[in-house]
Design brief:
It is built from 15 helices and four strands. By secondary structure, the chain is mainly alpha-helical. The chain has a domain of 267 residues. The longest helix is centred in the N-terminal third of the chain and has 29 residues.
Length: 421
């Protein structure tokens, strides 16, 4: 809103300083500061309200170090994150940008699903919350909306990068097509010709390959949105773990959005140029500010938990953001923490069912899943001493910081994949 207002003031009245709003970097800085202040200053009021309404976390005894001290801590704090993202974005971003619209819909959509889940847990006293079936339907629905928007919107276009060798074969120039095109292409890491076209899987179908490529793209979008949002939900088990990890991912996604939306930087890095994605940097600034601001209260010992209201929303935002900038194939690297947390649960449940069926007694790979609880739980589960180490439980804050460090390493690897080809 402010962006459109000051743009109008600059064009019509040549209002002093209004031209600053034309710079993405300026608006990103404002979005970051504004969201950070919103989360820290108004977060306290929301926490007080949650405490007054006795909206506290119900804790089950699982034998985890320091677990019962969390009982009664206010939950549904994801509302703080959502507000701190939405308000700066609405004020400072170009609201006619299709990518910004997609991110706003994602934030509200998954925020509502997470809120309903927390509401059922807290007010209906149903520890299972919203049925898993309804969660999946909601996530699939969002993936379908995003995928079809990418397919149908005339504003979602790319210019493919084409490498041109110099005379000495060492000089590398990148040229782009003169016109923007609709495409099912995405960036693939570690390969020299780093564009992967989903339509190539249907090349044998001739002219229909592009249509079926879009169908595959939509299905991949649905899968990624569901997997990453659930991964963030799994990771939200220790104070500050999901919040800090998401902030790290947000920084990298913001960088990738900026270079993808700038023809000069994308040319230098030899990646596809995606017009309009630079505007996503404003959303990324708000996202980073909101998550860091929430850490003010969510860091150990947490004064508030985000609940599914926050965790599902954070994961969905990261997934849709990556899809929008055609970097979804980098998610296994960038979101490696979420991926491992998800896999630990799948492996634990699958191995337990397999051994119970085969031997009559279920066995476990980890002391507890998701993986962060494995390091938090003392003792062992009697399988593979290497996996069961350390025997002693680690302090919660140490586990969180070590996961953050792993996340930073993965973030760095994600960035350098742009040049390791």
């Amino acid at each position: 809103m402010l962006y459109h207002l000051f743009t109008w003031l600059d064009k019509v009245f040549d209002f002093p300083g209004a031209g600053m709003f034309n710079f993405i970097s300026f608006r990103t800085g404002l979005a970051f500061i504004f969201s950070l202040l919103l989360a820290t200053m108004f977060g306290r009021r929301i926490i007080d309200y949650l405490q007054k309404k006795q909206i506290g976390e119900t804790i089950r005894e699982l034998g985890l170090e320091g677990q019962m001290s969390k009982k009664g801590t206010p939950t549904m704090g994801g509302i703080i994150i959502i507000i701190a993202i939405l308000i700066p974005t609405l004020l400072l971003a170009a609201l006619n940008n299709v990518y910004i619209i997609m991110m706003l819909i994602t934030t509200v959509w998954l925020g509502i699903i997470g809120f309903l889940d927390d509401y059922i847990k807290v007010f209906r006293k149903n520890k299972d919350g919203l049925s898993g079936r309804f969660k999946i339907v909601g996530q699939v629905g969002l993936g379908l909306i995003v995928g079809l928007t990418m397919y149908l919107s005339p504003d979602v276009v790319i210019r493919e990068n084409k490498e041109v060798k110099g005379a000495d074969q060492r000089v590398e120039n990148v040229t782009y097509a003169k016109e923007d095109i609709k495409s099912t292409k995405s960036t693939i890491p570690f390969f020299k010709n780093n564009n992967l076209d989903y339509a190539d899987a249907f090349r044998w179908m001739g002219e229909k390959a592009q249509d079926y490529g879009w169908i595959l793209f939509v299905l991949v979008t649905i899968f990624i949105v569901t997997a990453v949002s659930n991964g963030a939900n799994m990771t939200d088990g220790l104070d500050g773990l999901a919040t800090g990890s998401s902030a790290i991912m947000g920084v990298i996604l913001g960088i990738l959005a900026y270079v993808s939306g700038n023809v000069n930087y994308s040319g230098y890095l030899n990646i596809m140029y995606i017009p309009g994605t630079g505007e996503l940097l404003i959303f990324a600034g708000a996202f980073i500010g909101a998550t860091i601001g929430f850490l003010w209260y969510n860091s150990f010992p947490a004064q508030v938990f985000m609940g599914d209201t926050g965790s599902l929303t954070l994961g969905g935002i990261i997934a849709v953001f990556a899809i929008a900038i055609r970097k979804e194939l980098l998610i296994p690297i960038l979101c490696g923490v979420f991926l491992v947390e998800n896999l630990s649960v799948i492996l634990q449940v699958g191995y337990f069912k397999y051994t119970k069926k085969r031997y009559g007694e279920g066995k476990r790979i980890f002391k507890m899943a998701p993986l962060h609880h494995h390091y938090q739980k003392p003792g062992n589960a009697g399988i593979q001493a290497l996996i069961q180490n350390p025997i002693q439980a680690l302090p919660e804050s140490k586990i969180v910081i070590r996961f953050w460090i792993v996340g930073i390493i993965l973030a760095a690897i994600t960035i350098i994949t742009l040049k390791i080809r």
